[in-house]
Amino acid sequence: MSATSIRLESCRKAFTDGTVAVDDLSLEIQAGETLAILGPSGCGKTTTLRLIAGLERPDAGQVLFAGRDVTALPIERRDVGMVFQNYALFPNLDVAGNIVYGLKVRKVARAERERRCAELLELVGLQGHGQRAIHELSGGQRQRVALARALAPQPRVLLLDEPLAALDAQLRERLRAELGQLLRELAMTAVFVTHDQGEAMALGDRILVMERGRIAQLATPRALYQQPANCFVASFVGTLNTFVVLGRTANGVQVNGGSLPWTGSELPSTLYCRPEHLRITCEPGHMRGRLLGQFFQGAQSRLLVDVGSDQPLTVDSADDRLLAPGELINLAVEPQRVFSLHV
Ligand code: ATP
């Protein structure tokens, strides 16, 4: 089946208590694209997903699938597959029963159901588990069954609401990789909601960051990280070092602990840089601070360095030399790595 584009046009959804969950939201999701919706609790992620699914009707605006207005269609007529955080499997049916449920409802012949079930069990790595009871499965296996069940009727669109949130960290990471692989293989339009920026970065072709029912930024993971639209987005993806600008110097600006290169004509009150762009150097560098802690993270170490501001600087360094706590460290940064942001 060819993939379907999705368009939201000026969608608004308020609840009876007056909460505006989605506010004049317009966006286009390309056919075959995986869109991650990221944002703090209550920003409208799930409501947006439910508007796409047909589980909520917008008060204003339209939802279009492949250019066709589906705003008035309920979920069962939109051809979408859904996966929820809590699996929502039928406990009285075995694995195969759960997977083919939607096919039975659609009166698909038994032989075809069995063929499709075998295919899906293989797709999600559960070959030979068709007769297992749901309570005999691990959390990760249950989520794979939920995914297979959603995919069984060959929906045009796959919608996932925090699909990995109920899993422990290790399993979550593994299933994240598997899900990414699967989404690429299926090349279907997929939208998933997550709190987890790592998940959004790893799985989303683009990420929609929401703030109070609106778009804070819609961009590729790379663009979001490298050119965040504002402070809200920047603080939501990755760690950010914040520098209060104290004044001008010959080549830049004065900050706590030293200076920063800055060539902008305006003098912002705050500048930022990412932890991996601060470099430890034996030369004088730009800033000098005292090491508060060094945390080994495998491929790199994360250092906290006190330069006399409210928050210590975070430095990610691939250099795995062990430094002494309290040691004085020189830090340097490339001019293009220092940026300002809209508040
Ligand atoms: P979370 O990450 O906590 O799941 P979210 O970003 O998915 O949050 P939504 O579930 O879309 O947010 O909710 C957006 C806002 O709408 C919240 O303020 C929420 O309390 C409110 N809301 C959601 N559903 C309803 C409802 N059925 N009735 C009233 N208010 C609701």
UniProtKB/TrEMBL annotation:
InterPro entries: AAA+_ATPase (IPR003593), ABC_SmlMolc_Importer (IPR050093), ABC_transporter-like_ATP-bd (IPR003439), ABC_transporter-like_CS (IPR017871), Mo/tungstate-bd_C_term_dom (IPR008995), P-loop_NTPase (IPR027417), Transp-assoc_OB_typ2 (IPR013611). Keywords: ATP-binding, Nucleotide-binding, Transport. One of its GO terms (cellular component) is ATP-binding cassette (ABC) transporter complex. GO terms for biological process: quaternary ammonium group transport. The keyword Nucleotide-binding applies. One of its GO terms (molecular function) is ATP hydrolysis activity. Residues 6-237 form the ABC transporter domain. Pfam families: ABC_tran, TOBE_2. It comes from the Bacteria. PANTHER family: SPERMIDINE/PUTRESCINE IMPORT ATP-BINDING PROTEIN POTA, SPERMIDINE_PUTRESCINE IMPORT ATP-BINDING PROTEIN POTA. This is ABC transporter ATP-binding protein. It comes from Ectopseudomonas toyotomiensis.
